[in-house]
Amino acid sequence: MKKMIDSIVTEQFLTLLMEHQKGIYAYILSMVRNLSDADDIMQDCTAVMWRKFGEFKPNTSFIAWGIQIAHYEILRFRNKKKRELFLFCPELENLLDERARQVSQTVDIRLDILKICLTKLSEKQRDLLQMRYEKKLTQILIAERLGVSVQTICKYMARSHDFLWRCIRRTLASEEELA
């Protein structure tokens, strides 16, 4: 019976974590601005969240709970690295913290909107973005593969980025009007 309960708790935790991990990580990254440090803090934060999952109140915001834990992990990290880090004044740190919390809680919505906007691109544009961002090819390699100039690739990518940016902004604005 205990194994079954442990299994259910583990599944609940993992489901919530997978749903909100990007938002928590976005918050951490916005506060430390270094991928390696953010990865380490996220790992520590996940471990603390797992240990304290029994304290999480069902039907409350998991992402807010996770961000609160991340906040304390960031403070702990900064204390360990105090001499190495450039820190802002406390007022600016608090302002950055508040803004990062707001943005990280909407990261899933923004990713969903990005996915919708990506479907509005032409197949050629999507293929180009996939080569650049999923396959991590340089613009030079993409140009060589497609037999065009690097400038052509840069212009094409700039147009695609501009389209996505406008699409995301329009969609967010229309959702805010509905709210």
Main attributes of the structure:
179 residues, mainly alpha, 8 helices, 80% helix, globular
Written description of the protein model:
With 179 residues, the chain is mainly alpha-helical. The protein is built from eight helices and no strands. Helix 1 runs antiparallel to helix 2, helix 1 packs across helix 3 and helix 2 crosses helix 3. The chain starts with a helix and ends with a helix. The model has no long low-confidence stretch (mean pLDDT 84).
| Number of helical elements | 8
Low-confidence regions: none
- Note the overall shape: globular
The averaged pLDDT comes out at: 84
Q: Span from first to last CA? A: 45 Å
What portion of residues belong to β-strands? under 5%
> Radius of gyration, Cα only, in angstroms?
20 Å
Number of strands: 0
Largest sheet geometry: none
Q: Helix content range of the residues, please?
A: over 70%
Structural class: mainly alpha
Order of helices and strands: HHHHHHHH
Fold blueprint:
Layout: H1 2-32, H2 35-51, H3 62-80, H4 90-104, H5 107-119, H6 123-134, H7 139-146, H8 150-178
Helix pairs in contact: 1-2, 1-3, 1-4, 2-3, 5-8, 7-8
Quick overview of this protein structure:
With 179 residues, the chain is an all-alpha fold. It contains eight helices and no strands.
